[in-house]
């Protein structure tokens, strides 16, 4: 859509905003060519909230980064300061993209779908989470 700035009565250095798309909110933008959600096996928060938990140590984070398949065997609990409540989640699947960036799918308790999350966001969340000790 060409604009003739010289015939316009507006400032010739102001470009109409409709020529440029709105900034992308990368936290919720589509991740690569992968779906943002996938079906997941539902589990209830009551199943795990009363089980013992331990904070995740730096050594564990490094293991999870090197061997992400280990995440699929765990259940995590984090405290959401914004909503002032605990969130229970699992990682049922992950995908490694062509540029080696990993997309993880995080399913929250009582939800039927897992949501895509980037490698960076997942490990930020894990730093402040606890791992549920299984029997």
The topology string of helices and strands comes to EHEHEEEEHE
Side by side, the strands of the main sheet go: 1-6-5-4-3-7-2
Our estimate of the beta-strand percent is 25-35%
Helix proportion range: 10-25%
Distance between the termini: 64 Å
Q: From the alpha carbons, calculate the radius of gyration and give it in angstroms.
A: 21 Å
Overall pLDDT metric: 78
**Shape, per Cα inertia axes:** globular
Number of helices: 3
Written overview of the protein:
There is one protein chain. Helices cover 16% and strands 30% of the residues. The protein has 135 residues and is α+β, with helices and mostly antiparallel strands. It has a domain at 44-132. The chain has a seven-stranded antiparallel beta sheet. A hairpin with a 5-residue loop joins strand 4 (85-96) and strand 5 (102-108).
Kindly list the characteristics that best describe this protein.
single chain, seven-stranded antiparallel β-sheet, 16% helix, 3 helices
SSE order and pairing:
Blueprint: E1 37-39, H1 46-49, E2 53-55, H2 58-66, E3 75-80, E4 85-96, E5 102-108, E6 113-118, H3 119-127, E7 129-132
Antiparallel strand pairs: 1-6, 2-7, 3-4, 3-7, 4-5, 5-6
